[in-house]
């Protein structure tokens, strides 16, 4: 116990004496948590629209006004031909082309049917899908208004109608930040914890100071614990800062119990730090450690369900994400903060993470050799 | 010149002898392309939902069968009452609940009007919106079936064409994104660290007192990463053409020229970071925390830039990967020529020159 105490004093001194790093550790996550949720916004609005109105009738003008009034589209240009509008897409000035054919109004009255042409820049599939959906919705709406206008006595009431009463629980205003902030905080905590621990032992190796420890009576697990505890505390501090930022800047107050959150984070930090230390024992240089850590972080962050839903992944990827600690963390953050889940709801998550923590730290202790 | 080549050779040996690093440097782009290509999709499907059916009549059963048949939904169970709903949502698995009221079919037949309640877990707002839309369109279909015999007057049919990417695949969007990300990472981080490393271990001093010009010492560090990155560009392009079936629509030489420019931009950024920092850890934290997430976010391949607040939109302009992403998208996917991307090219060039000048200014020969 005394040995660990001395090791801790040493580690803390090292951390606090390197002001630059300390500032980076504290300030960067906070800054990023303030800025990133503003940027990570997937509400699709402001779709740039290029219009080709070959009809120039009252109807076509009505339709265009309706599209713009919806708030999803921004009218960028009127074009004389589809070709001209397409150039706008090529130059990234337009995302969506709406072409109204010549004789739209007349033919609609005469033939009871008309076609509109819509071209969507589909390089970004999500945006294209939502954009096409919105405009189809607006056209449908316009269409039914038109019908009522031209057919006032109405034969439609005889048709049975199913109304859909939809409600959005937990986030009635569909605030995207409420969804992103907990997830981003999870990633930042993982990044800081993982990288600091991965670099730490390697640094001693590179500087040669590890030799001094190897010849001392410090046991393997003393050494690993001495590295683990300071970063565990730092991780908790950063997590707390992150919750404060969420509260101050985005007024996000966890609906669930804070103790549930902290209990999970404590275990999670052990797991991720253990992973970092394991990498640290494998590598010889900081550059190596950083790169290997980066390699894994990249994979677990991308597959963790922050940006894209895990449910939509193919089966093999879903199985892989079962071994991804960050996906549990992001899940728990969202469940507790947004939905107010309690211990019982996340008990499975905690058990899995405890498993990770034990396995990874054991591996780190076993892998650390005092002999070279 | 001979001196320079000798130095480049030394740097190459540094890089090539570190097998673990090398493995990751070449493995990373491949793994990323595969993950993005096969695992990640923004499409919403297989969402788990529950049904509360108080009606248990023909209409409700038919709708449930229709929902079950769509690939968007997986009905995990039917709950007896709405009391259990809250608990089901809180354990996290359930994304949506659909509630049919008692006597649903009767109301529909006799009053010509019936209501279905749809409750979405909006902790993920986009998911909630998309799922609600799916349910609406399924129910709309069912309704159209009921009304098959009454014709609809004045019908406007929109004909939608998805340009460049008719199947709405993810690849056209992320291949350019991954290229930007990987190059940024390899060039900025690796150069920054390999230079600072010499400072930290003290070998920089030896290099600086050699008859070789100090600035050449720095430049020779960048050459191996330039070549490594070129290899990565080639392997990403090969993968995207042969594994992801994403052909290169534009001129491949132009694409390579632009990539080289971007690599040089990143290398100068790495040099700039290394000039400003003294320890590997700081260099790493800056290039990683400062570069990774911003590159992901501000190049515009994950989140649309036009949705961001004005200040951030403005900020995205100084992120080099944004311009590179636009260029690659233009050449590779849209098949455009140089006349369409000269502006972006000029901006990248400007950023490079600017970084080079300030790094040269602040480069200290003495330690």
Characterize the structure shown.
By secondary structure, chain A is α/β, with parallel strands linked by helices. Helices cover 67% and strands 10% of the residues of chain A. A four-stranded mixed beta sheet of chain A has the order 2-1-3-4, with helices on both faces. In chain A, helix 3 links the parallel strand 1 and strand 2. The radius of gyration of chain A is 29 Å and the shape is elongated. The two termini of chain A are 26 Å apart. The model of chain A has no long low-confidence stretch (mean pLDDT 83). Chain B has 367 residues and is an alpha/beta fold. In chain B, strands 2-1-3-4 form a four-stranded mixed beta sheet, sandwiched between helices. The radius of gyration of chain B is 28 Å and the shape is elongated. The mean pLDDT of chain B is 83. Strand 4 of chain A pairs parallel with strand 5 of chain B.
What's this model, at a glance?
Chain A is of the alpha/beta class and 372 residues long. Chain A has 14 helices and 5 strands. Chain A has helices at 2-17, 19-39, 58-69, 82-90, 104-111, 125-150, 176-207, 210-214, 220-250, 258-282, 286-302, 315-321, 325-339, 343-367; strands spanning 47-53, 73-79, 96-100, 113-121, 161-169.
Largest sheet of chain A: 4 strands, mixed
The N- to C-terminal Cα distance of chain A equals 26 Å
Proportion of residues in extended strands of chain B: 5-15%
Structural class of chain B: alpha/beta
Structural class of chain A: alpha/beta
Shape of chain B, please?
A: elongated
Shape of chain A: elongated
Task: Name the assembly state.
Answer: heterodimer
Instruction: Report the radius of gyration of chain A as a whole number of Å.
Output: 29 Å
Strand content of chain A: 5-15%
Radius of gyration of chain B: 28 Å
Poorly predicted residue ranges of chain A? none
Share of helix of chain B, binned: 55-70%
Output mean pLDDT of chain A.
Answer: 83
């Amino acid at each position: 116990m005394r040995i660990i105490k001395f090791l801790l004093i040493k580690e803390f001194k090292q951390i606090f004496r390197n002001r630059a790093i300390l500032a980076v550790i504290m300030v960067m996550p906070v800054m990023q948590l303030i800025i990133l949720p503003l940027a990570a916004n997937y509400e699709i609005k402001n779709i740039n629209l290029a219009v080709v109105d070959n009809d120039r009738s009252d109807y076509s003008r009505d339709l265009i006004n309706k599209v713009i009034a919806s708030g999803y589209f921004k009218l960028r240009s009127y074009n004389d031909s589809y070709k001209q509008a397409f150039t706008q897409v090529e130059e990234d000035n337009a995302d969506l082309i709406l072409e109204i054919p010549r004789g739209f109004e007349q033919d609609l009255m005469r033939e009871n049917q008309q076609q509109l042409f819509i071209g969507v820049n589909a390089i970004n599939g999500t945006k294209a899908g939502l954009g096409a959906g919105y405009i189809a919705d607006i056209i449908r709406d316009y269409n039914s208004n038109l019908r009522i206008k031209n057919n006032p006595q109405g034969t439609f009431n005889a048709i049975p109608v199913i109304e859909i009463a939809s409600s959005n629980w937990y986030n009635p205003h569909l605030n995207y930040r409420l969804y992103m902030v907990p997830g981003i905080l999870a990633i930042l905590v993982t990044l800081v914890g993982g990288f600091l621990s991965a670099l730490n032992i390697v640094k001693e190796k590179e500087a040669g100071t590890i030799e001094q420890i190897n010849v001392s009576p410090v046991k393997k697990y003393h050494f690993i614990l001495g590295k683990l505890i300071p970063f565990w505390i730092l991780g908790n501090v950063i997590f707390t800062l992150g919750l404060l930022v969420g509260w101050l800047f985005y007024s996000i107050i966890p609906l669930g119990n804070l103790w549930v959150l902290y209990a999970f984070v404590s275990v999670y930090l052990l797991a991720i730090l253990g992973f970092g230390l394991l990498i640290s024992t494998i590598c010889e240089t900081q550059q190596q450690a950083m790169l290997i850590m980066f390699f894994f972080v990249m994979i677990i962050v991308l597959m963790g369900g922050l940006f894209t839903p895990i449910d939509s992944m193919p089966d093999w990827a879903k199985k892989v994400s079962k071994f991804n600690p960050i996906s549990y963390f992001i899940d728990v953050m969202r469940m507790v903060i947004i939905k107010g889940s309690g211990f019982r709801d996340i008990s499975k998550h905690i058990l899995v993470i405890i498993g990770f923590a034990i396995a990874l730290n054991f591996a780190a202790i076993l892998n650390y050799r005092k002999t070279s | 010149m001979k001196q320079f080549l000798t130095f480049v050779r030394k740097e190459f040996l540094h890089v090539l002898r570190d097998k673990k690093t090398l493995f990751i440097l070449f493995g990373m782009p491949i793994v990323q392309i595969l993950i993005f290509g096969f695992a990640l999709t923004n499409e919403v499907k297989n969402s788990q939902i529950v049904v509360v059916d108080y009606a248990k009549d023909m209409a409700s059963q038919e709708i449930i069968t229709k929902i079950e048949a769509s690939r968007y939904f997986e009905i995990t169970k039917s709950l007896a009452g709405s009391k259990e709903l809250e608990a089901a949502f809180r354990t996290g698995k359930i994304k949506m609940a659909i509630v049919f009221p008692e006597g649903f079919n009767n109301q529909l037949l006799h009053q010509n009007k019936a209501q279905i309640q749809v409750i979405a877990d909006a902790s993920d707002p986009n998911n909630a919106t998309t799922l609600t839309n799916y349910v609406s369109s399924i129910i709309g279909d069912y309704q159209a079936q009921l009304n098959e015999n009454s014709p609809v007057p004045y019908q406007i049919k929109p004909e939608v064409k998805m340009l460049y990417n008719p199947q709405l695949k993810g690849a056209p969007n992320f291949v350019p994104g991954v290229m930007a990300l990987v190059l940024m990472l390899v060039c900025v981080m690796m150069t920054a660290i390999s230079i600072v490393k010499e400072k930290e271990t003290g070998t920089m001093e030896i290099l600086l007192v050699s008859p070789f010009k100090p600035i050449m010492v720095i430049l020779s560090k960048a050459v191996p990463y330039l070549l490594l990155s070129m290899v990565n560009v080639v392997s990403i392009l090969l993968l995207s053409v042969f594994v992801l079936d994403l052909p290169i629509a534009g001129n491949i030489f132009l694409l390579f020229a632009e990539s080289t420019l971007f690599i040089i931009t990143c290398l100068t950024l790495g040099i700039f970071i290394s000039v400003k920092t003294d320890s590997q850890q700081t260099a790493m934290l800056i290039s990683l925390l400062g570069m990774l997430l911003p590159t992901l976010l501000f190049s515009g391949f994950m989140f649309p830039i036009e949705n961001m607040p004005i200040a951030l939109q403005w900020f995205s302009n100084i992120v080099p990967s944004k311009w590179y992403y636009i260029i690659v998208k233009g050449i590779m996917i849209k098949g455009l020529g140089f006349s369409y991307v000269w502006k972006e090219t000029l901006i990248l060039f400007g950023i490079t020159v600017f970084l080079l000048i300030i790094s040269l200014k602040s480069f200290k020969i003495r330690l």
